[in-house]
Write a structure and sequence with these properties.
By secondary structure, this protein is of the alpha+beta class. It has a domain of 90 residues: 2-Layer Sandwich (Alpha-Beta Plaits), CATH 3.30.70. Strands 2-3-1-4 form a four-stranded antiparallel beta sheet, with helices on one face. The longest helix has 17 residues. It starts with a strand and ends in a 35-residue tail after the last helix. 14% of the residues are buried.
Amino acid sequence: MPLYEHVFLARQDVSAQQVEQLVEQYKGLIEGAGGTIGKVENWGLRSLAYRIKKNRKAHYTLMNITAPHAAVAEMERQMGLSEDVLRYMTFRVGELDEEPSAMMQKRDRDDRRGGGRGDRGDRGDRGDRGDRGDRSGGSRPPRRGEEE
């Protein structure tokens, strides 16, 4: 049976529990057609690169699917009809990767580091640039009405 990686984006105003219900709905559809769902990763609420149907954020979910093409096509058809699903994309792959995806590895790495971008440590608010000193000695020409 063919192997697929499937990613879909759900609207930002849908709760995480409703996203799980969507996953269960599509999982039931695939399993009813003789397929199986392997790994399911919820990547959480993330910012979109551009607005999609007036949404700036979306819930991202990855599913590893082993199913006949007809089952995947029916799942995509139902996703296209759903108002909660903004976008979806399915890739046929040679083998399914059971390790955490790059998105989950990045999240784990950020968690271990402790804080991500907002944590500046003990550098203070100037960073390591130091003081810029007196900046009034510039050589700009005088403006209209200013003395030279």
